[in-house]
Amino acid sequence: MSSVLSQDFFQNALLAGTFIALACGLVGYFLVLRAQMFTGDALSHVAFTGAMAALAGGYDLRLGLFAATIGVGLLLGGLGRRGQPDDVVIGSVFAWILGLGAFFLTVYTTSRSGSGQGGAGTTVLFGSIFGLHGNQTTLAVAIAGAICVLILLIGRPLLFATLDEAVAAARGVPVRALGLGFLVLVGACAAEATQAVGSLLLLGLLAAPAGAAIRLTDRPFRALALSGALAVGEMWGGLLLSAAFPKLPPSFAIMATASAVYALTFLVRPRRAARSVVIAAQRTAA
């Protein structure tokens, strides 16, 4: 165990994972509050399609990840009302995106450049946080750190627009611009987190810490901070579990830890009434 912890691959995973988890915790809180988890689910599948498209074209998969998730996020927001995609829009795109991902996967695995490298699809689906190198780690920290800073900068007006859109617009809050800007951050977060836990498990890292935080406190900014802290703790716990039990894939260990923490919140306290949470958040936003 001690020998694993001292290895470069584990330290890179711990550093990058800390910032990625923090970004997911902060972004996930607003996704839950804005009832946009379906958007996060859709973008996780978009991440797979974008990565496969980039690989099929001979480009770095990160280019496809960010271009696809941010682009589709803006598209969904633009088709929705005031920058908020609705379920009909998302559902109309969802199946087509998955089919397109399967197509690009086939193109990549059957092409000359992708021959014998079909494992790249598995890596995108389930992540490879222990495979991050020095430059990749630095880039992951920089991008995730920027997402965290931007979320904190727009947090108060975004909270206001989330809880009372009409009043926020009447008071001059740029509701549509905030909605679109938030979707850009969601897309960037989805692209970055895909490298850690994979596109299939990404939704759990966005939803579980935020859901647990909302159950534990009805104060919005305290819940935001708690969501980020829980996500980081779950990332650390999952990485340590994977180091202690090498047969456990790190993405599975991270998601198992996140799910266990969320389940424990049902034992800590009874579920709060949704109305009390909204009222407290409205008072803070006002």
UniProtKB/TrEMBL annotation:
- Pfam entry (one): ABC-3
- Keywords in alphabetical order: Membrane, Transmembrane, Transmembrane helix, Transport
Where are the membrane-spanning stretches?
12-32, 52-76, 88-108, 139-161, 173-191, 197-216, 223-245, 251-268
List where in the cell it is found: Cell membrane; Membrane
Q: Which Gene3D superfamilies match?
A: ABC transporter involved in vitamin B12 uptake, BtuC
Q: Which GO terms describe its cellular component?
A: ATP-binding cassette (ABC) transporter complex
Say yes or no: keyword Nuclease present.
no
Per the UniProt entry, what are the Gene Ontology biological process annotations, in alphabetical order?
Answer: response to zinc ion; transmembrane transport
Bilayer topology term: Multi-pass membrane protein
Q: Which residues form a coiled coil?
A: none
User: Sorted alphabetically, which InterPro entries does this protein's record hold?
Assistant: ABC_BtuC-like, ABC_TroCD
Q: Does the keyword Repressor apply?
A: no
Which PANTHER family does the UniProt entry name for this protein?
ABC-TRANSPORTER METAL-BINDING PROTEIN, IRON TRANSPORT SYSTEM MEMBRANE PROTEIN HI_0360-RELATED
Instruction: State the family named in the UniProt similarity comment for this chain.
Output: Belongs to the ABC-3 integral membrane protein family.
Return the protein name. Answer: Zinc/manganese transport system permease protein
